[in-house]
Amino acid sequence: MELIRAVRTAVGDFGNVVFPAYCHSCNRIADEGRWAPLLCGECSDSFPHCDQVVAVPRPLDGGHALSRFEGPAKDLIVSLKYKGLLRAGGAIGARMAIAPEARLWLQRSELIVPMPLHWRRRWSRGHNQAMTLARGMVKHGVWGRARPVLARVRATRPQVGLGRRFRMANVSGAFAVKKRAVARVQGARVLLVDDVVTTGATAAAAAVALKKAGAREVRLYAAAWARPPGS
Ligand SMILES: [Zn+2]
After folding, report:
1. What pLDDT, on a 0 to 100 scale, did the predictor assign at position 9?
2. Could you say which of 1.10.530, 3.40.50, 3.30.1490, 1.10.10 is the CATH number of the domain covering 48-225?
3. What is the CA(129)–ligand 1 centre distance, in A?
4. Listed residue (166, 190, 80) closest to 130, CA to CA
5. Domain boundaries, the chain
6. Distance from residue 215's CA to the centre of ligand 1 (Å)
7. How far is the CA of 227 from the centre of ligand 1 (A)?
8. Ligand 1 centre from 37 Cα, in Å?
9. What is the pLDDT of residues 74-112, one digit of tens each?
10. Which residues contact 76 (CB under 8 A, 6 or more apart)?
11. Distance (Å) from CA 85 to ligand 1 centroid
């Protein structure tokens, strides 16, 4: 099964003609449903859409998530992030672009900014999942372009398992706006894009850098919201 999936991923859509597509959540054949060929019909139906506002710390001006980080949504995001399933990023980005609750924000945003990875992590992973999501959004009707204006200037330990206060300290000063992008950020309404939001501490640290460079507004739009530890 793994081999078939690896070959199919390698040959892309053409592969669907030769090999059936398997659900990335439950391994059944994924030939029907809203998320086919990534998920089967049943997993498509149980996709944990929430399309809702999430609480995030200042200086972020708001937070929004397409889904909850569980079930088939979690499986797709994990496949995107750690197994390089870029098609999942494109498909999730497309859904983020047309989510009804997010429409007002999307119309207001002038600059779509993916959350950056530190170059070492970007290099070892081979892609930035937030950039894949942002590109999927732009390809499906979000106005503007996805611009990687932020740099991660300090490597940080993963936020997983840290409480809110430690998360803030862990990422403080971790981001900066690239020198050549400052003019683009000045006065702009920015939409930060990330895969998963938990407390929003990482995105808030990015917002500090964007506002220092003159951004008028910074909102976070995540593919999924994960319940913070201890809540
Ligand atoms: Zn399934």
Report:
1. 52
2. 3.40.50
3. 22
4. 80
5. 1-46, 48-225
6. 42
7. 23
8. 10
9. 999 999 999 989 999 999 999 999 998 888 888 889 999
10. 24, 25, 35, 38, 39, 85, 88, 91, 92
11. 16
